[in-house]
Design brief:
Number of strands: 29
Bound molecules: adenosine-5'-diphosphate
CATH architecture of the largest domain: 3-Layer(aba) Sandwich
CATH class of the largest domain: Alpha Beta
Subunit structure: Heterodimer composed of CysD, the smaller subunit, and CysN.
Catalytic activity: adenosine 5'-phosphosulfate + ATP = 3'-phosphoadenylyl sulfate + ADP + H(+); sulfate + ATP + H(+) = adenosine 5'-phosphosulfate + diphosphate
Distance between the termini: 73 Å
Strand order of the largest sheet: 2-3-1-4-5-6
CATH topology of the largest domain: Rossmann fold
Strand content: 25-35%
Oligomer: single chain
Helix content: 25-40%
Keywords: ATP-binding, GTP-binding, Kinase, Multifunctional enzyme, Nodulation, Nucleotide-binding, Nucleotidyltransferase, Phosphoprotein, Transferase
Radius of gyration: 30 Å
Number of domains: 4
Largest sheet: 6 strands, mixed
Active site: 550
Number of helices: 20
Structural class: alpha+beta
GO molecular function: adenylylsulfate kinase activity; ATP binding; GTP binding; GTPase activity; sulfate adenylyltransferase (ATP) activity
Length: 637
């Protein structure tokens, strides 16, 4: 529908009075601009937003918000909420149990609808700004004309650019307080241009305003006769939004759910990320690569001949093609890539530091996979843009790191496609969103390393040894009795002609893992490597016994996932801290208590006891010998 704004039916008041449904329909077909305002506490953000809302004179938020919610529901049909949608994004964050302090406001003028995300300006709220900006088309960077370009201005601009916002408005505010002096304005614009160029911002729109007095907000002000550009509202109403340029890109749609109400209908529902799709178009389903053609484009309002980026639709194919939630439907001659190793920018949003090597859920579009992040290549100082060395990322830190996923994901670089290049990381145990990220590119080395098929299979190795491979994973506090009992278990198995190997924590730290210390990050890497070694040993048909404190549930779970089903046997050597400390075989508790030894499990580093281990040994109730007997009896029937 084209906006013929002179048509009286579009005049708000009359229309609302006459026909509310028609009014809402008109609004539904206007373009939407999502923008973010960035500024420090006193830059006048609230005043400006208040004025925009007031001047738009059309704050029928409730009806419109309800309409928004309805159209979303049409798109997602009560399935999981798409995190990429700005408003829904907030809901998703709430679901994930993170408190992000971003206020979203809705308003509309006769030309456009707007959602504005308002975020606090403090440095510690990088995560808020990133959340608010994640789907914005435009950022209004507010500057106090009396103060000029500040550290915060640089930080906000950097983040907005990083998030992929290509429309930047430099709103030089409080012009009334500098007597509308053009020289002051020009000086600020020049300073900003220098900085912006340096970080790759190609263009921005500077506007001298006074949010308080209303200068250059809805109309041009007589106080700034020297200013020849648009008023802020005019710019917001007319600037070309990404949704428009997204239509020119190749077609991509992530499948949110498979719509199969009866045997005669099978459609794939989702929101078009980029491009245009028409009935008859050849398409490709990824990652499978299967092709077909579009037979129908179904919406609640009826079938369409074509649909474009931003629309929520259901596609039917001419052929029976396997396609499920998480798959991506794309133009068949120009599909996106799949890969499992990437370089990415990561914005860390959790209070606990990132743990390189720890498995997190990675959610990208409608795909969810397991991912591990390597130690960052560098961290960015968001105030100076300097690159700093980093071992991990803490709350609000931004860094660049390689990451790998447990299976191939369909993606595009974030710079080309925010929907298929932007992701979040979720803690597997707490379910909290811990990071947002942007994929840069896939690592070529991943494409050149293939799994080599070997003729002597793992079954063959196991049969030759006449046994079933397994990993007996001992976990427990230092001094709990892991090494003692593991040693007895191995002796018993050896006497029964079983082929075993005992991997002991201290021993492995003398060789394979001698480069690792006892920080959380090093402990995670320690367990990851031992897990990989244990896995190779089960492939060789061995019964592997490991004795590592392995304090974190997440890593023990990671190792469990590496193994064949049923081969991982978690053995909790359950000794109360007081008993382990009283034994203090190696004198380590004494050192830890005196502060001589840092990061000691149970003292100043946590131990997360298994919730549901295959075997639990209470060493206060039996001797080491009895414990070993019980364990062997469990695995050798
Ligand atoms: P870890 O390997 O868990 O750090 P160790 O096996 O090195 O622990 O040390 C455990 C100590 O506790 C040993 O000196 C062992 O003799 C003693 N101990 C006392 N009772 C038991 C028991 N029931 N099971 C295992 N060890 C016990």
């Amino acid at each position: 529908m084209t906006d013929t704004l002179d048509d009286p039916i579009y005049k708000t008041d009359a229309l609302i009075a006459e026909d509310i449904d028609r009014y809402l329909e008109v609004h539904q077909h206007k373009t939407m601009l999502r923008f973010i305002t960035c500024g420090s506490v006193d830059d006048g953000k609230s005043t400006l937003i208040g004025r925009l809302l007031y001047d738009s004179k059309m704050i029928f938020e409730d009806q419109l918000a309800a309409l928004e919610a309805d159209s979303r529901r049409v798109g997602t049909q009560g399935q999981e909420i798409d995190f990429a949608l700005l408003v829904d994004g907030l809901a998703a964050e709430r679901e994930q149990g993170i408190t992000i302090d971003v206020a979203y406001r809705f308003f509309a003028t006769e030309k456009r609808k707007f959602i504005v995300a308002d975020t606090p300006g403090h440095e510690q709220y990088t995560r808020n700004m990133v959340t608010g900006a994640s789907t914005a088309d435009l950022a209004v960077i507010l500057i106090d004309a009396r103060k000029g370009v500040l550290t915060q201005t640089r930080r906000h601009s950097y983040l907005a650019h990083l998030i992929g916002i290509r429309n930047i408005v430099l709103a030089v505010n409080k012009m009334d307080l500098v007597d509308y002096d053009q020289a002051v304005y020009d000086g600020i614009v020049k300073d900003y241009a220098e900085f912006a160029n340096g970080i790759g911002i190609k263009a921005f729109t500077p506007i001298p305003i006074s949010g308080f007095r209303g200068d250059n907000i809805t109309g041009l002000s007589a106080n700034t006769p020297w200013y020849k550009g648009p008023a802020l509202m005019e710019h917001l109403e007319t600037v070309e939004v990404d949704q428009v340029s997204d239509r020119e890109k190749p077609f991509r749609m992530a499948v949110q759910w498979v719509n199969r109400p009866n045997l005669d209908f099978r459609g794939f529902s989702g929101q078009i990320a980029t491009g245009t799709v028409r009935v008859g178009d050849p398409i490709r389903v990824l990652p499978s690569g299967k092709t077909s053609t579009v037979s129908r484009i179904v919406t609640l309002e009826g079938d369409l001949d074509s649909a474009v980026a931003g629309q929520s639709i259901t596609l039917c194919f001419a052929d029976e093609v396997d396609c499920s939630r998480g798959d991506v439907i794309a133009a068949s001659d120009n599909p996106p890539q799949s890969a499992d190793q990437f370089e990415a920018t990561i914005v860390w949003m959790a209070d606990e530091d990132m743990l390189p090597g720890r498995p997190y859920w990675l959610k990208i579009g409608t795909q969810t996979v397991t991912a591990t992040v390597q130690q960052p290549k560098y961290q960015v100082n968001v105030n100076t843009m300097e690159h700093l060395a980093a071992k991990t990322l803490e709350l609000n830190a931004i860094g660049v790191a390689n990451l790998s996923t447990d299976r191939q994901i369909v993606f595009e670089p974030y710079a080309q496609n925010r929907a298929l290049g932007g992701f979040i990381l979720i803690d597997k145990i707490s379910n909290a969103t811990v990071a947002a990220g942007m994929l840069h590119f896939s690592l070529r080395r991943a494409q050149n390393v293939h799994w080599q098929a070997t003729d002597v299979s793992r079954d063959f190795h196991a049969n030759l040894k006449n046994q079933k491979p397994a990993v007996l994973w001992f976990t427990g506090l230092s001094g709990a009795g892991k090494s003692t009992i593991a040693n007895l278990v191995e002796k018993k198995l050896a006497r029964m002609n079983r082929h075993t190997f005992l991997l002991d924590g201290d021993n492995v730290r003398h060789g394979l893992n001698k480069d690792l210390g006892f920080t959380d990050a090093d402990r995670v890497e320690n367990i990851r490597r031992v897990g990989e070694v244990a896995k190779l040993m089960t492939d060789a048909g061995l019964i592997v016994i490991t004795a590592f404190i392995s304090p974190f549930r997440a890593e023990r779970e990671m190792v469990r996932q590496m193994m064949q089903p049923g081969e991982f046997i978690e053995v909790h050597i359950d000794t109360p801290l007081a008993d382990a400390e009283a034994r203090d075989v190696k004198g380590l508790y004494k050192k830890a208590r005196s502060g001589e030894l840092k990061n000691f499990t149970g003292i100043d580093s946590p131990y997360e006891a298994p919730e549901d281990p295959e075997i639990r040994i209470d060493t206060t109730a039996m001797t080491a010998e009895q414990a070993a007997e019980a364990i062997v009896a469990r695995i050798i029937p």
